[in-house]
Amino acid sequence: METKFNCSTFIGLLMIQSVALICVAQDYDFFYLVQQWPGSYSGTQHSRCYPTTGKPAQSFTISGFWPSYNNGSIPTYCDPNNHFNETKLSDLISYLQTDWPSLACPSSNSTQLWGEEWEKHGTCSESGFDQHSYFLEALTVKDSFVDILQMLQVDGIQPDGRVYNLNSLIYNLKSAFYGYNVGIECNEDESGNSQFYQVYSCIDRTGISLIDCPVLPDANCSDSVVFPSF
Ligand code: 5GP
Protein backbone atom coordinates (compact mmCIF):
# COMPACT_ATOMS: atom_id res chain seq x y z
CA MET A 1 0.00 0.00 0.00
CA GLU A 2 2.81 2.27 1.05
CA THR A 3 4.76 1.47 -2.13
CA LYS A 4 1.71 2.06 -4.36
CA PHE A 5 1.11 5.42 -2.73
CA ASN A 6 4.71 6.49 -3.22
CA CYS A 7 4.74 5.32 -6.80
CA SER A 8 1.59 7.18 -7.83
CA THR A 9 2.78 10.26 -5.95
CA PHE A 10 6.03 10.02 -7.86
CA ILE A 11 4.23 9.66 -11.19
CA GLY A 12 1.98 12.58 -10.26
CA LEU A 13 4.98 14.71 -9.44
CA LEU A 14 6.60 13.74 -12.72
CA MET A 15 3.47 14.80 -14.60
CA ILE A 16 3.35 18.15 -12.82
CA GLN A 17 7.01 18.61 -13.59
CA SER A 18 6.43 17.84 -17.29
CA VAL A 19 3.56 20.31 -17.47
CA ALA A 20 5.72 22.91 -15.73
CA LEU A 21 8.49 22.16 -18.19
CA ILE A 22 6.14 22.65 -21.15
CA CYS A 23 5.05 26.02 -19.67
CA VAL A 24 8.62 27.14 -19.04
CA ALA A 25 9.69 26.01 -22.49
CA GLN A 26 7.23 28.34 -24.29
CA ASP A 27 9.47 30.00 -26.83
CA TYR A 28 7.70 33.40 -26.89
CA ASP A 29 4.66 35.13 -25.37
CA PHE A 30 3.57 37.64 -28.01
CA PHE A 31 4.74 39.49 -31.12
CA TYR A 32 5.81 43.09 -31.50
CA LEU A 33 4.83 44.42 -34.90
CA VAL A 34 7.18 47.37 -35.39
CA GLN A 35 6.29 49.76 -38.20
CA GLN A 36 8.53 52.58 -39.39
CA TRP A 37 7.75 55.86 -41.07
CA PRO A 38 10.03 55.76 -44.15
CA GLY A 39 10.42 59.56 -44.05
CA SER A 40 12.20 59.14 -40.71
CA TYR A 41 14.61 56.44 -41.85
CA SER A 42 17.18 59.15 -42.39
CA GLY A 43 18.95 61.40 -39.96
CA THR A 44 21.81 61.12 -37.53
CA GLN A 45 21.48 57.32 -37.21
CA HIS A 46 20.90 56.08 -40.76
CA SER A 47 21.25 57.22 -44.32
CA ARG A 48 18.32 56.20 -46.44
CA CYS A 49 18.49 54.46 -49.82
CA TYR A 50 15.41 53.42 -51.73
CA PRO A 51 15.22 49.74 -52.61
CA THR A 52 16.13 48.78 -56.17
CA THR A 53 12.41 48.10 -56.67
CA GLY A 54 11.67 51.83 -56.29
CA LYS A 55 10.55 54.42 -53.77
CA PRO A 56 8.15 52.85 -51.26
CA ALA A 57 4.59 54.16 -51.10
CA GLN A 58 3.54 56.82 -48.57
CA SER A 59 2.76 54.37 -45.83
CA PHE A 60 4.25 52.97 -42.66
CA THR A 61 6.27 49.86 -43.53
CA ILE A 62 7.25 46.86 -41.45
CA SER A 63 10.46 47.22 -39.53
CA GLY A 64 10.16 43.99 -37.56
CA PHE A 65 7.86 41.22 -36.37
CA TRP A 66 9.48 40.04 -33.18
CA PRO A 67 8.46 37.12 -30.99
CA SER A 68 8.97 38.47 -27.47
CA TYR A 69 8.57 37.60 -23.80
CA ASN A 70 6.19 39.36 -21.42
CA ASN A 71 9.16 40.84 -19.55
CA GLY A 72 10.15 42.67 -22.75
CA SER A 73 13.14 40.52 -23.65
CA ILE A 74 13.40 39.45 -27.26
CA PRO A 75 14.92 36.06 -28.09
CA THR A 76 17.15 36.01 -31.15
CA TYR A 77 18.81 33.48 -33.48
CA CYS A 78 16.86 30.55 -32.03
CA ASP A 79 17.75 28.00 -34.72
CA PRO A 80 21.07 28.57 -36.48
CA ASN A 81 20.36 25.59 -38.77
CA ASN A 82 17.16 27.07 -40.16
CA HIS A 83 18.48 29.28 -42.93
CA PHE A 84 16.42 31.72 -44.95
CA ASN A 85 15.19 30.26 -48.22
CA GLU A 86 13.65 32.87 -50.51
CA THR A 87 12.10 30.23 -52.78
CA LYS A 88 9.68 29.41 -49.96
CA LEU A 89 8.31 32.96 -50.23
CA SER A 90 7.79 33.24 -53.99
CA ASP A 91 4.07 34.03 -53.67
CA LEU A 92 4.75 36.74 -51.06
CA ILE A 93 7.64 38.64 -52.66
CA SER A 94 5.59 41.44 -54.24
CA TYR A 95 3.70 42.01 -50.97
CA LEU A 96 6.95 42.04 -49.00
CA GLN A 97 8.45 44.54 -51.44
CA THR A 98 5.52 46.86 -50.73
CA ASP A 99 5.10 46.34 -47.00
CA TRP A 100 8.56 45.32 -45.80
CA PRO A 101 11.12 47.15 -47.98
CA SER A 102 14.67 47.78 -46.83
CA LEU A 103 15.62 51.45 -46.67
CA ALA A 104 19.20 50.81 -45.62
CA CYS A 105 22.15 51.80 -47.83
CA PRO A 106 23.34 50.61 -50.24
CA SER A 107 20.10 50.00 -52.15
CA SER A 108 19.05 46.38 -52.33
CA ASN A 109 16.04 44.32 -53.34
CA SER A 110 15.34 43.81 -49.59
CA THR A 111 16.00 40.05 -49.70
CA GLN A 112 18.95 40.43 -47.35
CA LEU A 113 16.74 42.21 -44.80
CA TRP A 114 14.10 39.46 -44.88
CA GLY A 115 16.84 36.85 -44.47
CA GLU A 116 18.28 38.67 -41.46
CA GLU A 117 14.83 39.08 -39.93
CA TRP A 118 13.97 35.39 -40.39
CA GLU A 119 17.23 34.16 -38.89
CA LYS A 120 17.34 36.72 -36.05
CA HIS A 121 13.64 36.86 -35.08
CA GLY A 122 11.50 34.50 -37.17
CA THR A 123 13.31 31.35 -36.04
CA CYS A 124 12.19 32.18 -32.49
CA SER A 125 8.53 31.66 -33.47
CA GLU A 126 9.05 28.15 -34.85
CA SER A 127 6.63 26.47 -32.46
CA GLY A 128 3.86 28.36 -34.28
CA PHE A 129 5.21 29.58 -37.58
CA ASP A 130 7.42 28.22 -40.33
CA GLN A 131 9.17 30.63 -42.68
CA HIS A 132 6.24 31.12 -45.05
CA SER A 133 3.64 31.47 -42.30
CA TYR A 134 5.86 33.89 -40.34
CA PHE A 135 6.09 36.36 -43.23
CA LEU A 136 2.45 35.83 -44.22
CA GLU A 137 1.45 36.54 -40.63
CA ALA A 138 3.45 39.77 -40.47
CA LEU A 139 1.88 40.98 -43.73
CA THR A 140 -1.61 39.97 -42.65
CA VAL A 141 -1.33 41.68 -39.28
CA LYS A 142 0.01 44.87 -40.86
CA ASP A 143 -2.68 45.01 -43.51
CA SER A 144 -5.68 43.88 -41.50
CA PHE A 145 -5.55 45.82 -38.23
CA VAL A 146 -4.72 49.53 -38.53
CA ASP A 147 -3.55 51.81 -41.35
CA ILE A 148 -1.52 54.11 -39.11
CA LEU A 149 -1.10 56.97 -41.57
CA GLN A 150 -4.76 57.04 -42.53
CA MET A 151 -5.90 56.95 -38.90
CA LEU A 152 -3.57 59.77 -37.86
CA GLN A 153 -4.65 61.89 -40.84
CA VAL A 154 -8.26 61.65 -39.67
CA ASP A 155 -7.09 63.46 -36.54
CA GLY A 156 -5.16 66.08 -38.51
CA ILE A 157 -1.74 64.54 -37.88
CA GLN A 158 0.16 64.17 -41.12
CA PRO A 159 3.68 63.87 -42.46
CA ASP A 160 4.09 67.51 -43.38
CA GLY A 161 7.38 68.33 -41.66
CA ARG A 162 5.55 70.08 -38.82
CA VAL A 163 6.10 69.55 -35.13
CA TYR A 164 3.46 67.65 -33.12
CA ASN A 165 2.89 67.37 -29.40
CA LEU A 166 4.10 63.97 -28.21
CA ASN A 167 1.19 63.35 -25.85
CA SER A 168 -1.42 64.07 -28.50
CA LEU A 169 0.43 61.79 -30.92
CA ILE A 170 0.44 58.96 -28.37
CA TYR A 171 -3.21 59.60 -27.53
CA ASN A 172 -4.23 59.45 -31.19
CA LEU A 173 -2.16 56.35 -31.88
CA LYS A 174 -3.74 54.57 -28.95
CA SER A 175 -7.23 55.38 -30.15
CA ALA A 176 -6.27 54.27 -33.70
CA PHE A 177 -5.35 50.91 -32.15
CA TYR A 178 -8.81 50.58 -30.52
CA GLY A 179 -7.48 51.70 -27.11
CA TYR A 180 -4.71 49.10 -26.91
CA ASN A 181 -1.46 50.15 -25.35
CA VAL A 182 1.00 50.86 -28.18
CA GLY A 183 4.42 52.48 -28.21
CA ILE A 184 6.30 55.06 -30.19
CA GLU A 185 9.98 55.50 -30.87
CA CYS A 186 11.77 58.61 -32.08
CA ASN A 187 15.15 59.20 -33.66
CA GLU A 188 16.93 62.39 -34.74
CA ASP A 189 16.69 64.14 -38.08
CA GLU A 190 19.78 65.66 -39.73
CA SER A 191 19.39 68.82 -37.61
CA GLY A 192 19.14 66.89 -34.35
CA ASN A 193 15.36 67.35 -33.94
CA SER A 194 13.38 64.53 -32.40
CA GLN A 195 11.34 62.85 -35.16
CA PHE A 196 8.51 60.31 -35.12
CA TYR A 197 10.17 57.08 -36.32
CA GLN A 198 8.43 53.83 -35.30
CA VAL A 199 5.20 52.46 -33.80
CA TYR A 200 5.16 49.30 -31.66
CA SER A 201 1.93 47.33 -31.50
CA CYS A 202 1.49 43.92 -29.89
CA ILE A 203 -0.20 40.77 -31.13
CA ASP A 204 -1.02 37.62 -29.17
CA ARG A 205 1.20 34.57 -29.71
CA THR A 206 -1.19 32.98 -32.19
CA GLY A 207 -1.07 36.10 -34.36
CA ILE A 208 -4.83 36.60 -34.21
CA SER A 209 -5.57 39.53 -31.86
CA LEU A 210 -4.15 42.87 -30.90
CA ILE A 211 -3.23 43.01 -27.21
CA ASP A 212 -2.01 45.67 -24.79
CA CYS A 213 1.78 45.73 -25.08
CA PRO A 214 2.99 44.22 -21.78
CA VAL A 215 6.09 46.40 -21.91
CA LEU A 216 7.42 49.00 -24.31
CA PRO A 217 10.89 50.27 -25.17
CA ASP A 218 11.94 53.76 -24.18
CA ALA A 219 10.28 56.18 -26.63
CA ASN A 220 13.37 58.38 -26.78
CA CYS A 221 11.20 61.36 -27.88
CA SER A 222 11.16 65.05 -26.98
CA ASP A 223 7.88 66.69 -25.93
CA SER A 224 7.49 67.89 -29.53
CA VAL A 225 8.33 65.68 -32.47
CA VAL A 226 8.70 66.31 -36.19
CA PHE A 227 6.64 64.18 -38.59
CA PRO A 228 8.73 64.48 -41.76
CA SER A 229 7.33 64.25 -45.25
CA PHE A 230 8.27 61.38 -47.53
P1 5GP B 1 16.12 44.37 -35.95
O1 5GP B 1 15.92 45.78 -35.48
O2 5GP B 1 14.93 43.80 -36.64
O3 5GP B 1 16.64 43.46 -34.90
O4 5GP B 1 17.29 44.50 -37.06
C1 5GP B 1 17.10 45.29 -38.18
C2 5GP B 1 18.28 45.10 -39.15
O5 5GP B 1 17.80 45.32 -40.44
C3 5GP B 1 19.40 46.09 -38.91
O6 5GP B 1 20.63 45.45 -39.14
C4 5GP B 1 19.16 47.15 -39.99
O7 5GP B 1 20.32 47.78 -40.41
C5 5GP B 1 18.57 46.31 -41.11
N1 5GP B 1 17.67 47.07 -41.98
C6 5GP B 1 17.76 47.10 -43.32
N2 5GP B 1 16.78 47.89 -43.83
C7 5GP B 1 16.07 48.33 -42.77
C8 5GP B 1 14.93 49.16 -42.68
O8 5GP B 1 14.35 49.67 -43.64
N3 5GP B 1 14.47 49.38 -41.43
C9 5GP B 1 15.05 48.85 -40.32
N4 5GP B 1 14.56 49.15 -39.13
N5 5GP B 1 16.12 48.05 -40.38
C10 5GP B 1 16.62 47.80 -41.61
From TrEMBL:
<protein>
    <submittedName>
        <fullName>Uncharacterized protein</fullName>
    </submittedName>
</protein>
<dbReference type="GO" id="GO:0003723">
    <property type="term" value="F:RNA binding"/>
</dbReference>
<dbReference type="InterPro" id="IPR001568">
    <property type="entry name" value="RNase_T2-like"/>
</dbReference>
<dbReference type="Pfam" id="PF00445">
    <property type="entry name" value="Ribonuclease_T2"/>
</dbReference>
<dbReference type="GO" id="GO:0005576">
    <property type="term" value="C:extracellular region"/>
</dbReference>
<dbReference type="InterPro" id="IPR033697">
    <property type="entry name" value="Ribonuclease_T2_eukaryotic"/>
</dbReference>
<keyword id="KW-0325">Glycoprotein</keyword>
<keyword id="KW-0732">Signal</keyword>
<dbReference type="GO" id="GO:0033897">
    <property type="term" value="F:ribonuclease T2 activity"/>
</dbReference>
<comment type="similarity">
    <text>Belongs to the RNase T2 family.</text>
</comment>
<dbReference type="InterPro" id="IPR036430">
    <property type="entry name" value="RNase_T2-like_sf"/>
</dbReference>
<dbReference type="GO" id="GO:0006401">
    <property type="term" value="P:RNA catabolic process"/>
</dbReference>
<keyword id="KW-1015">Disulfide bond</keyword>
<feature type="signal peptide">
    <location>
        <begin position="1"/>
        <end position="25"/>
    </location>
</feature>
